[in-house]
């Protein structure tokens, strides 16, 4: 399946994922939410939590490397937080301004993940449905992308799965009204991209996080992306 995700550069090692812009008219959604994170942990404790949650995953089809504490701002580490929202449990809510993805849970909580989102001019907002899930997916650049970046022609029939594949360890494919939007929630092995405006619309999570999210959300789950300027 085609995807709008594209690597930062092409060479021996492909850096994960920039994405082309595609037209997606999604209705804006209302959201009122707040989070509360414990401030009691010391800086060393927060750094230790990063290394605990982002250990290597050697048993994956393609081994996932560990993330060092100095590679990720601790606030973007996966954690359960207080979260007030009208969306029901099981909904995925993305706040592109805060660079957080929330999986709504029971009792006013959510599992929160740090994400990288669309850079200026490539953001999108609205709602969609996870219509398909894939482990270690193949990435195929669209024809329009190949025209702009001829070096990607070698992947016209698909780039094989792997840690350098722009979609990473997992991909959740977003559909609207039964049609593929070309937007994805997907993995990356580049921690420097988390908390940044780096893509052309897709939402990227660390491979460890997208694996965790993949296990928690079934196909058919609703995804809501808040418009810029509306904080969760």
TrEMBL record:
PROSITE patterns the record matches: LD_TPASE
InterPro entries referenced in this protein's UniProt entry, alphabetically: LD-transpeptidase, LD_TPept_cat_dom, Transpep_catalytic_dom
Catalytic residue list: 186 (proton donor/acceptor), 202 (nucleophile)
Pathway info: Cell wall biogenesis; peptidoglycan biosynthesis
Entry annotated with the keyword Cell wall biogenesis/degradation: yes
Residue ranges constituting the L,D-TPase catalytic domain according to the UniProt record: 90-226
Cell wall biogenesis/degradation keyword on record: yes
Signal sequence, renumbered to the chain: 1-27
Official protein name in the record: L,D-TPase catalytic domain-containing protein
Species, as recorded: Methylobacterium isbiliense
């Amino acid at each position: 399946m085609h995807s709008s995700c594209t690597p930062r550069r092409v060479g021996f090692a492909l850096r994960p994922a920039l994405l082309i812009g595609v037209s997606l008219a999604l209705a804006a959604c209302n959201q009122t939410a707040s989070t509360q994170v414990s401030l009691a942990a010391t800086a060393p404790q927060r750094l230790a939590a990063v290394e605990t949650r982002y250990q290597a995953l050697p048993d994956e089809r393609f081994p996932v490397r560990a993330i060092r504490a100095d590679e990720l701002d601790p606030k973007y580490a996966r954690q359960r937080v207080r979260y007030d929202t009208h969306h029901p449990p099981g909904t995925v809510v993305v706040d592109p301004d805060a660079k957080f993805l929330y999986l709504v849970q029971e009792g006013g909580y959510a599992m929160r993940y740090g994400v990288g989102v669309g850079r200026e001019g490539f953001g999108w907002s609205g709602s969609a449905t996870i219509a398909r899930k894939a482990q270690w997916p193949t990435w195929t650049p669209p024809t329009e992308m190949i025209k702009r970046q001829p070096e990607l022609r070698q992947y016209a029939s698909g780039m094989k799965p792997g840690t350098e594949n722009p979609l990473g360890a997992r991909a959740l494919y977003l559909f609207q009204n039964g049609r593929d939007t070309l937007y994805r929630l997907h993995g990356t092995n580049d921690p420097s991209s988390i908390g940044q405006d780096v893509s052309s619309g897709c939402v990227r999570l660390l491979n460890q996080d997208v694996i965790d999210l993949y296990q928690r959300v079934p196909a058919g789950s609703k995804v809501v992306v808040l418009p810029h300027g509306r904080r969760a």
